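Catalogue entry: protein

Sequence with per-residue tokens
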Amino acid sequence: MSAIPNKTFTDGKSIPAFGLGIWQVPQEETARVVRESIEMGYPLIDGAAAYRNEEQLGEGIRSADKPRDDLFITSKVWNDGMDYDAVRRSVDDSLKRIGLERLDLMLIHWPFPKQDAYVDAWKALIAARADGQVSSIGVCNFHEAHLKRIIDETGEAPVLNQIEVNPMLQQAETVRVNAAHDIVTQSWSPLGNARSFDADPIKAVAERTGKTAPQVILRWHLQRGNAVIARSTKTDHLRANMEIFDFEITQAEMDAIAKLDQNERTGPDPETFNG
């Protein structure tokens, strides 16, 4: 397997371009999945308070034979704690649950527009970084207006915006806005609930390369310039998801996959989702 590339942040730090997401991984399986992934070479584990498996995330990290400094650990603030003081407590609580002194990346999980508190939440993450609790700070599911507001009111842009991206929801405009601010785009739900597995452009690449549809799609994310997090509880799928660094999709094939975009979400709309 080729080395996993890094994406550089504007704060001078960097993030692996590929990692494991533990959304919807059951508590009873999380520690095993995390341990196996780390031992396979996954450098990044993406968690969140809302996933309710942070304790098991920490257990998996401790049971794996890998130095902490070789891992990149992410968590996220949920909507039950979006004001300044609550966000500071949320960071404390995530650190305690995972059993770490520092997180590599802390994100605001959603803008939660009804609360209208994401600017205060952003200020709290800036303070948590200044206090050494987190190395880098970013957001999830922010659109242009959300990004503009926090940048205008604090003078600080996120280093990363984690958004839903897959062949059926390519989010070209949000990706463009991120790039304009030197914000790394990281894709969640990258396989889009398998909706494009049987699409002709995906099958064509799979047949040419001998790869599976999920491997083709994960590779597509990387070649678009996005970081990507993949999820599975099955050992063979975890291993297969790592086998995406030994082939390339041609430009003609990338152009064909681009035509699959239907602007169809599998998750909520950030403009209306309030938790």
Summary: The chain is about 40% helix and 15% strand. The mean pLDDT is 97. The two ends are 39 Å apart (CA to CA).
